[in-house]
Design brief:
Order of helices and strands: EHEEEHHHHHHEHHEHEEEHHEHEEHE
Number of domains: 3
Distance between the termini: 26 Å
Helix content: 40-55%
CATH class of the largest domain: Mainly Alpha
């Protein structure tokens, strides 16, 4: 894993859980912004690592302040905790330079957090709890189990929450400050669309291949080779007759990915064996090839997808959903709103009430008169915190209460459909792609600007 020291505090907490517990806590705060352009270093997954928060760090007897950023201290212990996350085998900087790099990243982080405070950006307790609950749910464990596993690694629950909250705040300020600086001109969009409309070079397009392996030992006798080849040819004939390739893979393939229908994933051609690439290069999507001989045996291949990295799709997935919105205020706390919506969900699931009726009676949104129906929405239409939950729901499924900038929602997906892209859709997609391309460089410039404005006083070198 390669990660910048600037984000290593959060990664350390997550990495510990990944190492010992084997579940993907790293998805808790899946980044929506590119990593800062700091030196990239390999993390070691060591259960002895512990992250320290500079805002609540306990100064130990041998600890001391190494720098002050606009009156906020950074301690030697913090620098060493961050440096300890780097695998010594991957450290090309040397101990002294590594400590200096860790200190510089902590200084940058401190300066950015102060911008967040000046902008009155906050992460509420409800938003933090929702992020943690979402992580537990995605990884099929309870919050209590998450807490127990962290405690087993010497990480207190409050320390974990503090680290997650700090990283959420950093992400939020970076998104807010950087996005407003990116301007995409109409002529850039038109140029992108013209370039995109040209015939793509198929040799550079990403490909997605599925395979069925009939394994052959490297010591196989001629008759065993003949038998294996015959079996592979029979599988190919069956696939060409229209039999589901995934089911054939599950039944006949002797590769570890058989349970996944033999799918190898969408990736660039240079990440596939050259014999696979050569075999499918001239195939249409859905085409079959084989048997192909490799050192492992005979393969039957199917080209599932071919996609240029910047190619626009021909259709987009629209979602029709409805919701009940409660707006917390003086008479209704956020916790009370969540509890009230949870009660509505139970009524709907037991058949005691209908979603649309509850929406008409209680939703504090213009959609209430339509039973909460939001109509058909394109990707990116809803605010991210709402859309993220909506996208995970199956038609007919109802979410847990979720918090957005507008209030607390109960969401149900009604149906989905594929619609051809309009000219406006293509322009919007092109604008988003161009914005992502510019984000990383704009982020680096903003970080340099924030660092230049900060008053940094160096005390003693970290040891």
């Amino acid at each position: 894993m390669r990660i910048s020291l600037q984000t290593a505090k959060l990664a350390a907490v997550l990495a510990l859980s990944l190492t010992v517990c084997g579940w993907a806590l790293a998805q808790a705060l899946k980044p929506t912004v590119p990593k800062p352009g700091a030196e990239r270093l390999n993390l070691k997954m060591s259960p002895s690592v512990s992250a320290t928060d500079p805002l609540d760090a306990d100064l130990r007897p041998l600890d001391f302040i190494v720098a002050v950023v606009d009156n906020e201290p950074i301690t030697n212990q913090e620098v060493n905790n961050l440096a300890a996350m780097v695998d010594p085998a991957a450290n090309k900087l040397g101990r002294e330079n590594l400590l200096r790099e860790a200190l510089e990243n902590l200084i940058n982080e401190s300066a950015q957090l102060q911008v967040a405070r000046q902008s009155n950006l906050q992460v509420s307790a409800e938003e933090l709890q929702q992020a943690i609950e979402g992580t537990a749910k995605r990884n099929q464990i309870t919050v209590q189990e998450m807490q127990q596993r962290l405690n087993a690694q010497g990480i207190t629950w409050e320390r974990y929450r503090t680290q997650i909250k700090r990283q959420m705040l950093l992400q939020r300020v970076r998104e807010r400050e950087v996005a407003s600086r990116i301007k995409i001109q109409d002529h850039e969009v038109e140029a992108f669309l013209q370039e995109n409309s040209k015939e793509a070079d198929s040799s550079k397009a990403d490909i997605h291949i599925a395979h069925i392996l009939i394994a052959v030992s490297d010591k196989a006798q001629p008759d065993e080779l003949t038998q294996a080849l015959s079996k592979a040819e029979e599988v190919l004939r069956t696939a060409k007759s229209g039999e589901d390739f995934g089911k054939l893979a599950a039944k006949f393939s002797q590769a570890p990915d058989r349970a996944n229908g033999g799918q190898l994933g969408l990736r660039s051609p240079d990440r596939y064996p050259s014999l696979f690439v050569d075999a499918v290069m001239s195939l249409p999507v859905g085409g079959l090839a084989g048997p192909i001989r490799s050192g492992a045996g005979f393969h039957v291949l199917k080209l599932l997808e071919r996609k240029s990295p910047d190619a626009l799709p021909s259709t987009l997935t629209q979602t029709r959903a409805r919701h009940i919105l409660l707006r917390p205020g003086n008479q209704l706390s956020q916790d009370a709103a969540r509890a009230q919506l949870a009660g509505y969900r139970k009524q709907i699931e037991t058949g005691a009430a209908k979603f649309e009726e509850l929406a008409k009676q209680h939703s504090q949104d213009a959609s209430a008169t339509q039973g909460g129906d939001l109509g058909w929405a394109n990707p990116g239409t809803m605010v991210p915190e709402f859309e993220k939950v909506m996208d995970m729901l199956q038609p007919g499924e109802i979410s847990d209460p979720l918090v957005s900038r507008f209030g607390v929602h109960l969401v149900q997906v009604l149906e989905r459909r594929e619609e051809p892209l309009t000219t406006r859709d293509k322009q919007d997609m092109a604008r988003n792609i161009l914005r992502e391309r510019k984000f990383d460089e704009t982020l680096k410039n903003w970080e340099r600007e924030i660092r230049g404005r900060a008053f940094v006083e160096y005390r003693e070198p970290p040891q």
